[in-house]
Amino acid sequence: MHTVFRIDDIRTIGENNSIYEVDLKLTPDDDPQLRELLAFIRKETSGTGWYRMGILLFKIGQFDKGEELYTALLEQASEDSVKAHIYHQLGSALHQHGKYKEAISFYETSLEIERKTLPEGHSSLASTYNNIAAAYYSIGDYSKAREFHQKADKIYEISLPLNHPNLAASDNNIGQVYNNMGDYAKALEFHQKALKIKKISLPPNHPNLAISYNNIGLVYNNMGDYSKALEFYQKAHKIKEISLPLNHPDLAISYNNIGQVYNNMGHYSKALEFYQKAHKIKEISLPPNHPDLAISYDNIGSVYNNIGDFSKVLEFYQKAHKIYEISLPPNHPNLAISYNNIGFVYNNMGDYSKALEFYQKAHKIKEISLPLNHPDLAISYNNIGSVYNDMGDYSKALEYFKKVLKMYEESLPANHSQLALPYNWFGKIYRGMKDYPKALENFERCFSIWKKALPENHPDIAFAFSNIGDVHRLMGNYERALSFHRKALNIQENVQCNPLECATTYINLGETYREMKDYSTTLTYFQKGLEIREKKLPKDHPDLAVVYHNMGKLYLSTRKYSMAMKHVQQAIEIAQEKLPSTHPHLLEYKDTFEEIRKKM
Fold it and tell me: Please, which residues have CB within 8 angstroms of residue 351's CB and are 6 or more apart in sequence?
Protein backbone atom coordinates (compact mmCIF):
# COMPACT_ATOMS: atom_id res chain seq x y z
CA MET A 1 0.00 0.00 0.00
CA HIS A 2 1.14 3.57 -0.68
CA THR A 3 1.73 5.90 2.27
CA VAL A 4 -1.54 7.28 3.67
CA PHE A 5 -1.85 10.21 6.10
CA ARG A 6 -4.62 11.70 8.22
CA ILE A 7 -4.89 15.51 8.17
CA ASP A 8 -4.80 16.72 11.78
CA ASP A 9 -4.81 20.47 11.17
CA ILE A 10 -4.46 23.12 8.45
CA ARG A 11 -3.18 26.64 9.24
CA THR A 12 -2.50 29.70 7.08
CA ILE A 13 1.08 31.06 6.98
CA GLY A 14 1.92 34.68 6.23
CA GLU A 15 -0.22 37.76 5.86
CA ASN A 16 -1.91 37.04 2.53
CA ASN A 17 -3.41 33.67 3.65
CA SER A 18 -2.32 32.01 0.39
CA ILE A 19 0.17 29.51 1.93
CA TYR A 20 -0.96 26.71 4.24
CA GLU A 21 0.84 24.54 6.81
CA VAL A 22 -0.67 21.07 7.07
CA ASP A 23 -0.09 18.70 10.04
CA LEU A 24 -0.05 15.07 8.81
CA LYS A 25 -0.21 11.89 10.85
CA LEU A 26 0.92 8.59 9.30
CA THR A 27 -1.88 6.01 9.10
CA PRO A 28 -0.81 2.40 9.79
CA ASP A 29 -1.71 -0.31 7.27
CA ASP A 30 -3.86 -2.11 9.84
CA ASP A 31 -6.06 0.95 10.61
CA PRO A 32 -9.61 -0.58 10.61
CA GLN A 33 -11.36 2.46 9.05
CA LEU A 34 -8.73 2.71 6.27
CA ARG A 35 -8.99 -1.03 5.57
CA GLU A 36 -12.79 -0.80 5.31
CA LEU A 37 -12.62 2.26 3.03
CA LEU A 38 -10.06 0.65 0.68
CA ALA A 39 -12.18 -2.50 0.37
CA PHE A 40 -15.17 -0.33 -0.53
CA ILE A 41 -13.22 1.64 -3.21
CA ARG A 42 -11.77 -1.56 -4.74
CA LYS A 43 -15.26 -3.03 -4.99
CA GLU A 44 -16.62 0.16 -6.65
CA THR A 45 -13.88 0.12 -9.32
CA SER A 46 -13.76 -3.62 -9.92
CA GLY A 47 -13.27 -5.01 -13.43
CA THR A 48 -10.42 -5.81 -15.77
CA GLY A 49 -8.24 -3.93 -18.23
CA TRP A 50 -9.79 -1.12 -20.25
CA TYR A 51 -13.21 -1.66 -18.69
CA ARG A 52 -11.82 -0.94 -15.25
CA MET A 53 -10.11 2.14 -16.68
CA GLY A 54 -13.49 3.35 -18.02
CA ILE A 55 -15.13 2.98 -14.58
CA LEU A 56 -12.22 4.83 -12.97
CA LEU A 57 -12.46 7.69 -15.51
CA PHE A 58 -16.15 8.14 -14.61
CA LYS A 59 -15.35 8.03 -10.87
CA ILE A 60 -12.85 10.91 -11.22
CA GLY A 61 -15.23 12.95 -13.41
CA GLN A 62 -13.46 12.43 -16.78
CA PHE A 63 -16.72 11.72 -18.62
CA ASP A 64 -15.55 12.80 -22.09
CA LYS A 65 -12.54 10.47 -21.97
CA GLY A 66 -14.68 7.67 -20.53
CA GLU A 67 -17.25 8.07 -23.32
CA GLU A 68 -14.49 8.06 -25.95
CA LEU A 69 -12.99 4.88 -24.50
CA TYR A 70 -16.32 3.02 -24.32
CA THR A 71 -17.30 4.04 -27.88
CA ALA A 72 -14.05 2.47 -29.13
CA LEU A 73 -14.65 -0.66 -27.03
CA LEU A 74 -18.21 -1.02 -28.43
CA GLU A 75 -16.88 -1.32 -31.99
CA GLN A 76 -14.70 -4.26 -30.90
CA ALA A 77 -17.28 -6.00 -28.69
CA SER A 78 -18.87 -9.27 -29.82
CA GLU A 79 -20.35 -10.75 -26.60
CA ASP A 80 -23.83 -9.59 -25.52
CA SER A 81 -22.80 -9.12 -21.89
CA VAL A 82 -19.93 -6.82 -22.94
CA LYS A 83 -22.21 -4.82 -25.25
CA ALA A 84 -24.79 -4.42 -22.47
CA HIS A 85 -22.08 -3.11 -20.12
CA ILE A 86 -20.80 -0.61 -22.72
CA TYR A 87 -24.28 0.69 -23.61
CA HIS A 88 -24.86 1.15 -19.89
CA GLN A 89 -21.63 3.14 -19.46
CA LEU A 90 -22.35 5.28 -22.54
CA GLY A 91 -25.76 6.03 -21.10
CA SER A 92 -24.02 7.10 -17.90
CA ALA A 93 -21.72 9.46 -19.85
CA LEU A 94 -24.67 11.07 -21.67
CA HIS A 95 -26.51 11.36 -18.36
CA GLN A 96 -23.59 13.27 -16.83
CA HIS A 97 -23.64 15.62 -19.83
CA GLY A 98 -27.32 16.42 -19.22
CA LYS A 99 -28.50 14.52 -22.33
CA TYR A 100 -31.15 12.63 -20.40
CA LYS A 101 -33.37 11.35 -23.23
CA GLU A 102 -30.34 10.00 -25.11
CA ALA A 103 -29.11 8.42 -21.87
CA ILE A 104 -32.46 6.65 -21.41
CA SER A 105 -32.20 5.28 -24.95
CA PHE A 106 -28.74 3.76 -24.24
CA TYR A 107 -29.83 2.42 -20.85
CA GLU A 108 -32.87 0.76 -22.45
CA THR A 109 -30.68 -0.86 -25.13
CA SER A 110 -28.51 -2.23 -22.34
CA LEU A 111 -31.62 -3.41 -20.46
CA GLU A 112 -32.99 -5.16 -23.55
CA ILE A 113 -29.76 -7.19 -23.92
CA GLU A 114 -29.58 -7.92 -20.16
CA ARG A 115 -33.15 -9.25 -20.07
CA LYS A 116 -32.27 -11.77 -22.79
CA THR A 117 -29.01 -12.91 -21.22
CA LEU A 118 -29.48 -12.62 -17.43
CA PRO A 119 -31.78 -14.24 -14.87
CA GLU A 120 -34.79 -12.11 -13.84
CA GLY A 121 -33.42 -11.04 -10.44
CA HIS A 122 -29.80 -10.33 -11.47
CA SER A 123 -28.12 -7.35 -9.75
CA SER A 124 -27.04 -5.84 -13.12
CA LEU A 125 -30.71 -5.39 -14.00
CA ALA A 126 -31.18 -3.45 -10.75
CA SER A 127 -28.29 -1.15 -11.63
CA THR A 128 -29.80 -0.41 -15.05
CA TYR A 129 -33.27 0.17 -13.58
CA ASN A 130 -31.75 2.68 -11.16
CA ASN A 131 -29.96 4.57 -13.91
CA ILE A 132 -33.10 4.76 -16.05
CA ALA A 133 -34.93 6.05 -12.97
CA ALA A 134 -32.25 8.69 -12.38
CA ALA A 135 -32.58 9.96 -15.95
CA TYR A 136 -36.38 10.20 -15.63
CA TYR A 137 -35.86 12.00 -12.30
CA SER A 138 -33.64 14.55 -14.06
CA ILE A 139 -36.35 15.39 -16.62
CA GLY A 140 -38.97 15.73 -13.87
CA ASP A 141 -40.91 12.51 -14.64
CA TYR A 142 -41.11 11.36 -11.01
CA SER A 143 -43.74 8.64 -11.46
CA LYS A 144 -41.48 6.90 -14.04
CA ALA A 145 -38.47 7.43 -11.77
CA ARG A 146 -40.30 5.79 -8.87
CA GLU A 147 -41.44 2.88 -11.07
CA PHE A 148 -37.85 1.99 -12.11
CA HIS A 149 -36.33 2.58 -8.64
CA GLN A 150 -38.95 0.21 -7.20
CA LYS A 151 -38.06 -2.44 -9.80
CA ALA A 152 -34.44 -2.16 -8.68
CA ASP A 153 -35.41 -2.27 -5.02
CA LYS A 154 -37.42 -5.46 -5.55
CA ILE A 155 -34.31 -7.20 -6.94
CA TYR A 156 -32.11 -5.95 -4.09
CA GLU A 157 -34.58 -7.13 -1.44
CA ILE A 158 -34.54 -10.66 -2.92
CA SER A 159 -30.82 -10.94 -3.73
CA LEU A 160 -28.96 -8.99 -1.02
CA PRO A 161 -28.42 -9.34 2.73
CA LEU A 162 -30.69 -7.14 4.90
CA ASN A 163 -28.04 -4.49 5.63
CA HIS A 164 -26.28 -4.30 2.28
CA PRO A 165 -25.22 -0.72 1.23
CA ASN A 166 -27.06 -1.12 -2.12
CA LEU A 167 -30.35 -1.49 -0.22
CA ALA A 168 -29.61 1.78 1.58
CA ALA A 169 -28.86 3.47 -1.75
CA SER A 170 -32.12 2.11 -3.15
CA ASP A 171 -34.15 3.41 -0.19
CA ASN A 172 -32.40 6.75 -0.57
CA ASN A 173 -33.33 6.94 -4.28
CA ILE A 174 -37.01 6.21 -3.61
CA GLY A 175 -36.98 8.73 -0.74
CA GLN A 176 -35.68 11.48 -3.05
CA VAL A 177 -38.43 10.78 -5.59
CA TYR A 178 -41.14 10.93 -2.92
CA ASN A 179 -39.63 14.20 -1.65
CA ASN A 180 -39.93 15.75 -5.12
CA MET A 181 -43.46 14.39 -5.44
CA GLY A 182 -44.35 16.20 -2.21
CA ASP A 183 -45.08 13.00 -0.26
CA TYR A 184 -42.87 13.94 2.68
CA ALA A 185 -44.05 11.18 5.05
CA LYS A 186 -43.05 8.55 2.48
CA ALA A 187 -39.78 10.36 1.77
CA LEU A 188 -38.88 10.33 5.48
CA GLU A 189 -39.81 6.65 5.77
CA PHE A 190 -37.36 5.64 3.00
CA HIS A 191 -34.54 8.00 4.05
CA GLN A 192 -34.77 6.68 7.62
CA LYS A 193 -34.63 3.08 6.33
CA ALA A 194 -31.47 4.02 4.40
CA LEU A 195 -29.95 5.66 7.49
CA LYS A 196 -30.66 2.59 9.64
CA ILE A 197 -28.77 0.34 7.19
CA LYS A 198 -25.84 2.75 6.90
CA LYS A 199 -25.47 2.99 10.68
CA ILE A 200 -25.06 -0.82 10.79
CA SER A 201 -22.88 -1.27 7.69
CA LEU A 202 -20.61 1.82 7.68
CA PRO A 203 -18.03 3.37 10.03
CA PRO A 204 -19.56 6.11 12.27
CA ASN A 205 -17.96 9.01 10.38
CA HIS A 206 -18.42 7.71 6.83
CA PRO A 207 -19.38 10.45 4.31
CA ASN A 208 -22.38 8.35 3.15
CA LEU A 209 -23.92 8.78 6.61
CA ALA A 210 -23.68 12.54 6.12
CA ILE A 211 -25.58 12.16 2.81
CA SER A 212 -28.42 10.42 4.66
CA TYR A 213 -28.57 13.11 7.34
CA ASN A 214 -28.64 15.76 4.58
CA ASN A 215 -31.50 14.00 2.79
CA ILE A 216 -33.58 13.83 5.97
CA GLY A 217 -32.76 17.49 6.68
CA LEU A 218 -33.99 18.44 3.20
CA VAL A 219 -37.35 16.69 3.75
CA TYR A 220 -37.88 18.46 7.08
CA ASN A 221 -36.93 21.75 5.41
CA ASN A 222 -39.58 21.16 2.73
CA MET A 223 -42.10 20.33 5.46
CA GLY A 224 -41.38 23.68 7.12
CA ASP A 225 -40.00 21.95 10.25
CA TYR A 226 -36.86 24.07 10.29
CA SER A 227 -35.58 23.08 13.74
CA LYS A 228 -35.57 19.40 12.69
CA ALA A 229 -33.95 20.29 9.36
CA LEU A 230 -31.21 22.17 11.23
CA GLU A 231 -30.64 19.23 13.59
CA PHE A 232 -30.01 16.80 10.70
CA TYR A 233 -27.95 19.24 8.62
CA GLN A 234 -25.73 19.83 11.66
CA LYS A 235 -25.28 16.06 12.14
CA ALA A 236 -24.16 15.83 8.51
CA HIS A 237 -21.83 18.80 8.97
CA LYS A 238 -20.22 17.26 12.06
CA ILE A 239 -19.25 14.13 10.09
CA LYS A 240 -17.86 16.23 7.25
CA GLU A 241 -15.77 18.32 9.65
CA ILE A 242 -14.19 15.11 11.03
CA SER A 243 -13.69 13.28 7.73
CA LEU A 244 -12.81 16.06 5.26
CA PRO A 245 -10.08 18.73 4.88
CA LEU A 246 -11.01 22.26 6.02
CA ASN A 247 -11.68 23.63 2.54
CA HIS A 248 -13.31 20.59 0.93
CA PRO A 249 -16.22 21.53 -1.43
CA ASP A 250 -18.59 19.16 0.46
CA LEU A 251 -18.18 21.36 3.55
CA ALA A 252 -19.39 24.28 1.44
CA ILE A 253 -22.53 22.28 0.55
CA SER A 254 -23.06 21.66 4.26
CA TYR A 255 -22.72 25.36 5.11
CA ASN A 256 -25.17 26.17 2.29
CA ASN A 257 -27.78 23.76 3.67
CA ILE A 258 -27.54 25.25 7.16
CA GLY A 259 -27.66 28.76 5.67
CA GLN A 260 -30.81 27.89 3.74
CA VAL A 261 -32.61 26.78 6.92
CA TYR A 262 -31.64 29.97 8.77
CA ASN A 263 -32.85 31.94 5.72
CA ASN A 264 -36.21 30.13 5.84
CA MET A 265 -36.46 30.76 9.59
CA GLY A 266 -35.91 34.50 9.08
CA HIS A 267 -32.52 34.44 10.88
CA TYR A 268 -30.92 36.42 8.09
CA SER A 269 -27.65 37.35 9.79
CA LYS A 270 -27.05 33.65 10.58
CA ALA A 271 -27.99 32.70 7.02
CA LEU A 272 -25.48 35.21 5.63
CA GLU A 273 -22.78 33.92 7.99
CA PHE A 274 -23.14 30.34 6.71
CA TYR A 275 -23.57 31.28 3.05
CA GLN A 276 -20.40 33.38 3.30
CA LYS A 277 -18.50 30.47 4.91
CA ALA A 278 -19.56 28.33 1.95
CA HIS A 279 -18.52 31.05 -0.48
CA LYS A 280 -15.08 31.40 1.14
CA ILE A 281 -14.39 27.67 0.64
CA LYS A 282 -15.53 27.84 -2.99
CA GLU A 283 -13.28 30.85 -3.68
CA ILE A 284 -10.28 28.84 -2.39
CA SER A 285 -11.12 25.49 -3.99
CA LEU A 286 -12.68 26.43 -7.35
CA PRO A 287 -11.63 28.40 -10.46
CA PRO A 288 -12.99 31.99 -10.58
CA ASN A 289 -15.79 31.29 -13.09
CA HIS A 290 -16.99 27.94 -11.73
CA PRO A 291 -20.84 27.60 -11.74
CA ASP A 292 -20.81 26.62 -8.03
CA LEU A 293 -19.50 30.12 -7.21
CA ALA A 294 -22.53 31.52 -9.04
CA ILE A 295 -24.84 29.37 -6.89
CA SER A 296 -23.11 30.83 -3.85
CA TYR A 297 -23.78 34.39 -5.08
CA ASP A 298 -27.42 33.42 -5.69
CA ASN A 299 -27.76 32.15 -2.12
CA ILE A 300 -26.30 35.34 -0.62
CA GLY A 301 -28.57 37.35 -2.91
CA SER A 302 -31.64 35.46 -1.64
CA VAL A 303 -30.88 36.62 1.93
CA TYR A 304 -30.57 40.25 0.87
CA ASN A 305 -33.88 39.77 -0.97
CA ASN A 306 -35.55 38.68 2.27
CA ILE A 307 -33.94 41.59 4.13
CA GLY A 308 -35.34 43.89 1.43
CA ASP A 309 -31.95 45.28 0.33
CA PHE A 310 -32.75 45.07 -3.39
CA SER A 311 -29.65 46.90 -4.63
CA LYS A 312 -27.51 44.27 -2.87
CA VAL A 313 -29.72 41.47 -4.25
CA LEU A 314 -29.22 42.69 -7.81
CA GLU A 315 -25.47 43.03 -7.24
CA PHE A 316 -25.13 39.36 -6.19
CA TYR A 317 -27.60 37.97 -8.74
CA GLN A 318 -25.76 39.83 -11.51
CA LYS A 319 -22.40 38.47 -10.29
CA ALA A 320 -23.92 34.98 -10.52
CA HIS A 321 -25.37 35.69 -13.96
CA LYS A 322 -22.01 36.89 -15.28
CA ILE A 323 -20.39 33.56 -14.28
CA TYR A 324 -23.24 31.54 -15.82
CA GLU A 325 -22.87 33.44 -19.12
CA ILE A 326 -19.12 32.70 -19.22
CA SER A 327 -19.20 29.08 -18.03
CA LEU A 328 -22.43 27.61 -19.44
CA PRO A 329 -23.92 27.01 -22.91
CA PRO A 330 -26.46 29.72 -23.95
CA ASN A 331 -29.53 27.52 -23.29
CA HIS A 332 -28.42 25.90 -20.01
CA PRO A 333 -31.23 25.59 -17.38
CA ASN A 334 -29.07 27.41 -14.77
CA LEU A 335 -29.10 30.51 -16.97
CA ALA A 336 -32.90 30.36 -16.90
CA ILE A 337 -32.80 30.18 -13.08
CA SER A 338 -30.54 33.22 -13.08
CA TYR A 339 -32.91 35.22 -15.30
CA ASN A 340 -35.77 34.17 -13.00
CA ASN A 341 -33.87 35.41 -9.94
CA ILE A 342 -33.21 38.81 -11.50
CA GLY A 343 -36.85 38.99 -12.64
CA PHE A 344 -37.98 38.20 -9.10
CA VAL A 345 -35.97 41.14 -7.71
CA TYR A 346 -37.44 43.57 -10.23
CA ASN A 347 -40.90 42.22 -9.38
CA ASN A 348 -40.27 42.82 -5.66
CA MET A 349 -39.04 46.33 -6.49
CA GLY A 350 -42.30 46.95 -8.34
CA ASP A 351 -40.56 47.30 -11.73
CA TYR A 352 -42.96 44.96 -13.51
CA SER A 353 -41.89 45.59 -17.11
CA LYS A 354 -38.27 44.66 -16.21
CA ALA A 355 -39.49 41.62 -14.28
CA LEU A 356 -41.49 40.45 -17.29
CA GLU A 357 -38.49 40.92 -19.59
CA PHE A 358 -36.28 38.62 -17.46
CA TYR A 359 -39.01 36.04 -16.80
CA GLN A 360 -39.60 35.75 -20.55
CA LYS A 361 -35.86 35.26 -21.19
CA ALA A 362 -35.91 32.43 -18.65
CA HIS A 363 -39.00 30.90 -20.26
CA LYS A 364 -37.44 30.96 -23.73
CA ILE A 365 -34.46 28.88 -22.49
CA LYS A 366 -36.74 26.39 -20.71
CA GLU A 367 -38.87 25.89 -23.82
CA ILE A 368 -35.71 24.95 -25.76
CA SER A 369 -33.99 22.81 -23.10
CA LEU A 370 -36.82 21.00 -21.26
CA PRO A 371 -39.54 18.45 -22.15
CA LEU A 372 -43.03 19.92 -22.75
CA ASN A 373 -44.45 18.90 -19.36
CA HIS A 374 -41.40 19.54 -17.15
CA PRO A 375 -42.36 21.12 -13.77
CA ASP A 376 -39.81 23.92 -14.30
CA LEU A 377 -41.86 25.18 -17.26
CA ALA A 378 -44.81 25.51 -14.90
CA ILE A 379 -42.65 27.66 -12.57
CA SER A 380 -41.87 29.88 -15.56
CA TYR A 381 -45.58 30.31 -16.40
CA ASN A 382 -46.21 30.99 -12.70
CA ASN A 383 -43.65 33.82 -12.64
CA ILE A 384 -45.00 35.48 -15.78
CA GLY A 385 -48.58 35.14 -14.52
CA SER A 386 -47.66 36.75 -11.19
CA VAL A 387 -46.30 39.85 -12.96
CA TYR A 388 -49.45 40.23 -15.07
CA ASN A 389 -51.47 39.97 -11.84
CA ASP A 390 -49.38 42.68 -10.18
CA MET A 391 -49.80 44.85 -13.29
CA GLY A 392 -53.58 44.43 -13.02
CA ASP A 393 -53.86 42.48 -16.31
CA TYR A 394 -56.05 39.78 -14.77
CA SER A 395 -57.13 38.01 -17.98
CA LYS A 396 -53.46 37.47 -18.96
CA ALA A 397 -52.65 36.31 -15.44
CA LEU A 398 -55.52 33.77 -15.53
CA GLU A 399 -54.31 32.47 -18.90
CA TYR A 400 -50.84 31.69 -17.49
CA PHE A 401 -52.03 30.14 -14.23
CA LYS A 402 -54.42 27.85 -16.11
CA LYS A 403 -51.34 26.57 -17.98
CA VAL A 404 -49.61 26.04 -14.61
CA LEU A 405 -52.55 24.05 -13.24
CA LYS A 406 -52.76 21.87 -16.37
CA MET A 407 -49.03 21.03 -16.17
CA TYR A 408 -49.15 20.28 -12.45
CA GLU A 409 -52.19 18.02 -12.87
CA GLU A 410 -50.35 16.08 -15.58
CA SER A 411 -47.00 15.80 -13.78
CA LEU A 412 -47.68 15.77 -10.00
CA PRO A 413 -49.54 13.38 -7.68
CA ALA A 414 -52.99 14.48 -6.48
CA ASN A 415 -51.78 15.34 -2.95
CA HIS A 416 -48.68 17.36 -3.91
CA SER A 417 -48.43 20.70 -2.08
CA GLN A 418 -47.52 22.54 -5.31
CA LEU A 419 -50.98 21.80 -6.75
CA ALA A 420 -52.28 24.40 -4.28
CA LEU A 421 -50.25 27.22 -5.84
CA PRO A 422 -52.36 27.86 -8.99
CA TYR A 423 -55.54 27.86 -6.86
CA ASN A 424 -53.91 30.41 -4.55
CA TRP A 425 -53.20 32.61 -7.57
CA PHE A 426 -56.71 32.14 -8.97
CA GLY A 427 -57.95 33.38 -5.60
CA LYS A 428 -55.72 36.48 -5.81
CA ILE A 429 -56.77 37.21 -9.39
CA TYR A 430 -60.51 36.87 -8.71
CA ARG A 431 -60.08 39.02 -5.60
CA GLY A 432 -58.45 41.68 -7.78
CA MET A 433 -61.40 41.36 -10.20
CA LYS A 434 -63.78 41.78 -7.20
CA ASP A 435 -65.34 38.34 -7.86
CA TYR A 436 -65.22 37.42 -4.18
CA PRO A 437 -67.20 34.13 -4.22
CA LYS A 438 -64.79 32.74 -6.87
CA ALA A 439 -61.82 34.09 -4.91
CA LEU A 440 -63.04 32.35 -1.74
CA GLU A 441 -63.69 29.08 -3.58
CA ASN A 442 -60.11 29.01 -4.91
CA PHE A 443 -58.44 30.06 -1.65
CA GLU A 444 -60.37 27.27 0.12
CA ARG A 445 -59.25 24.71 -2.50
CA CYS A 446 -55.68 25.89 -1.95
CA PHE A 447 -56.07 25.50 1.82
CA SER A 448 -57.62 22.03 1.43
CA ILE A 449 -54.54 20.79 -0.49
CA TRP A 450 -52.01 22.38 1.90
CA LYS A 451 -53.89 21.04 4.94
CA LYS A 452 -53.39 17.46 3.66
CA ALA A 453 -49.83 17.94 2.39
CA LEU A 454 -48.16 20.18 5.03
CA PRO A 455 -47.70 20.29 8.82
CA GLU A 456 -50.42 22.33 10.59
CA ASN A 457 -48.00 25.12 11.59
CA HIS A 458 -46.34 25.49 8.16
CA PRO A 459 -45.98 29.16 7.06
CA ASP A 460 -48.03 28.41 3.92
CA ILE A 461 -51.01 27.41 6.10
CA ALA A 462 -50.85 30.86 7.72
CA PHE A 463 -50.72 32.39 4.25
CA ALA A 464 -53.91 30.48 3.28
CA PHE A 465 -55.73 31.58 6.46
CA SER A 466 -54.78 35.20 5.75
CA ASN A 467 -56.13 35.07 2.19
CA ILE A 468 -59.42 33.43 3.24
CA GLY A 469 -59.80 36.02 6.00
CA ASP A 470 -59.24 38.89 3.57
CA VAL A 471 -61.99 37.66 1.21
CA HIS A 472 -64.42 37.29 4.14
CA ARG A 473 -63.65 40.92 5.01
CA LEU A 474 -64.36 42.03 1.45
CA MET A 475 -67.67 40.11 1.58
CA GLY A 476 -68.59 41.83 4.87
CA ASN A 477 -68.16 38.71 7.05
CA TYR A 478 -66.02 40.55 9.61
CA GLU A 479 -66.08 38.05 12.50
CA ARG A 480 -65.07 35.21 10.16
CA ALA A 481 -62.37 37.45 8.69
CA LEU A 482 -60.94 38.20 12.16
CA SER A 483 -61.04 34.49 13.04
CA PHE A 484 -58.93 33.52 10.00
CA HIS A 485 -56.47 36.42 10.41
CA ARG A 486 -55.91 35.45 14.06
CA LYS A 487 -55.25 31.84 12.99
CA ALA A 488 -52.66 33.13 10.52
CA LEU A 489 -51.05 35.40 13.10
CA ASN A 490 -50.95 32.58 15.66
CA ILE A 491 -48.75 30.54 13.29
CA GLN A 492 -46.65 33.49 12.14
CA GLU A 493 -45.88 34.78 15.63
CA ASN A 494 -45.00 31.31 16.96
CA VAL A 495 -43.11 29.90 13.96
CA GLN A 496 -40.27 31.68 12.18
CA CYS A 497 -41.64 33.27 9.01
CA ASN A 498 -40.81 36.00 6.55
CA PRO A 499 -41.55 39.31 8.37
CA LEU A 500 -43.27 40.69 5.25
CA GLU A 501 -45.89 37.93 5.58
CA CYS A 502 -46.57 39.04 9.17
CA ALA A 503 -46.88 42.61 7.88
CA THR A 504 -49.58 41.54 5.39
CA THR A 505 -51.56 39.85 8.17
CA TYR A 506 -51.31 42.96 10.39
CA ILE A 507 -52.59 45.12 7.51
CA ASN A 508 -55.43 42.68 6.78
CA LEU A 509 -56.43 42.75 10.47
CA GLY A 510 -56.28 46.55 10.45
CA GLU A 511 -58.46 46.77 7.35
CA THR A 512 -61.05 44.46 8.95
CA TYR A 513 -61.17 46.57 12.12
CA ARG A 514 -61.46 49.73 9.99
CA GLU A 515 -64.55 48.38 8.29
CA MET A 516 -65.90 47.43 11.74
CA LYS A 517 -65.29 51.10 12.76
CA ASP A 518 -62.84 50.15 15.54
CA TYR A 519 -60.41 52.86 14.46
CA SER A 520 -57.91 52.78 17.34
CA THR A 521 -57.28 49.03 16.83
CA THR A 522 -57.08 49.69 13.09
CA LEU A 523 -54.33 52.26 13.57
CA THR A 524 -52.33 49.88 15.81
CA TYR A 525 -52.30 47.12 13.19
CA PHE A 526 -51.63 49.46 10.25
CA GLN A 527 -48.65 50.94 12.10
CA LYS A 528 -47.26 47.46 12.84
CA GLY A 529 -47.54 46.49 9.18
CA LEU A 530 -46.16 49.81 7.94
CA GLU A 531 -43.17 49.63 10.28
CA ILE A 532 -42.13 46.23 8.85
CA ARG A 533 -42.68 47.25 5.21
CA GLU A 534 -40.77 50.53 5.63
CA LYS A 535 -37.82 48.57 7.05
CA LYS A 536 -37.88 45.83 4.43
CA LEU A 537 -38.95 47.50 1.16
CA PRO A 538 -37.67 50.35 -1.04
CA LYS A 539 -39.36 53.71 -0.43
CA ASP A 540 -41.21 53.54 -3.75
CA HIS A 541 -42.46 49.96 -3.49
CA PRO A 542 -46.14 49.45 -4.49
CA ASP A 543 -46.82 47.48 -1.27
CA LEU A 544 -46.05 50.64 0.71
CA ALA A 545 -48.59 52.49 -1.42
CA VAL A 546 -51.24 49.95 -0.30
CA VAL A 547 -50.60 50.77 3.39
CA TYR A 548 -50.50 54.53 2.78
CA HIS A 549 -53.84 54.26 0.98
CA ASN A 550 -55.31 52.17 3.82
CA MET A 551 -54.18 54.76 6.37
CA GLY A 552 -55.59 57.52 4.17
CA LYS A 553 -58.99 55.78 4.24
CA LEU A 554 -58.71 55.41 8.04
CA TYR A 555 -58.06 59.14 8.49
CA LEU A 556 -60.93 59.87 6.07
CA SER A 557 -63.25 57.78 8.27
CA THR A 558 -62.11 59.72 11.38
CA ARG A 559 -62.45 63.09 9.52
CA LYS A 560 -58.75 63.92 9.77
CA TYR A 561 -58.74 65.11 6.18
CA SER A 562 -55.27 66.67 5.98
CA MET A 563 -53.68 63.42 7.29
CA ALA A 564 -55.87 61.44 4.88
CA MET A 565 -54.79 63.61 1.94
CA LYS A 566 -51.09 63.30 2.91
CA HIS A 567 -51.18 59.49 2.96
CA VAL A 568 -53.23 59.08 -0.21
CA GLN A 569 -50.90 61.45 -2.08
CA GLN A 570 -47.95 59.27 -0.99
CA ALA A 571 -49.80 56.24 -2.38
CA ILE A 572 -50.56 57.99 -5.70
CA GLU A 573 -46.93 59.19 -6.13
CA ILE A 574 -45.63 55.62 -5.78
CA ALA A 575 -48.36 54.12 -7.99
CA GLN A 576 -47.83 56.66 -10.77
CA GLU A 577 -44.12 55.83 -10.81
CA LYS A 578 -44.40 52.05 -10.53
CA LEU A 579 -47.78 50.93 -11.95
CA PRO A 580 -49.43 51.14 -15.38
CA SER A 581 -51.85 54.08 -15.72
CA THR A 582 -54.81 51.66 -15.93
CA HIS A 583 -53.86 49.63 -12.84
CA PRO A 584 -56.88 49.14 -10.51
CA HIS A 585 -54.86 50.23 -7.45
CA LEU A 586 -53.92 53.57 -9.01
CA LEU A 587 -57.52 54.19 -10.11
CA GLU A 588 -58.75 53.38 -6.58
CA TYR A 589 -56.20 55.74 -5.00
CA LYS A 590 -57.35 58.55 -7.31
CA ASP A 591 -60.99 57.90 -6.39
CA THR A 592 -60.12 58.13 -2.69
CA PHE A 593 -58.19 61.37 -3.38
CA GLU A 594 -61.29 62.89 -5.02
CA GLU A 595 -63.45 61.77 -2.10
CA ILE A 596 -61.12 63.47 0.40
CA ARG A 597 -60.87 66.62 -1.73
CA LYS A 598 -64.65 66.97 -1.72
CA LYS A 599 -64.74 66.65 2.09
CA MET A 600 -62.07 69.29 2.71
Answer: 578
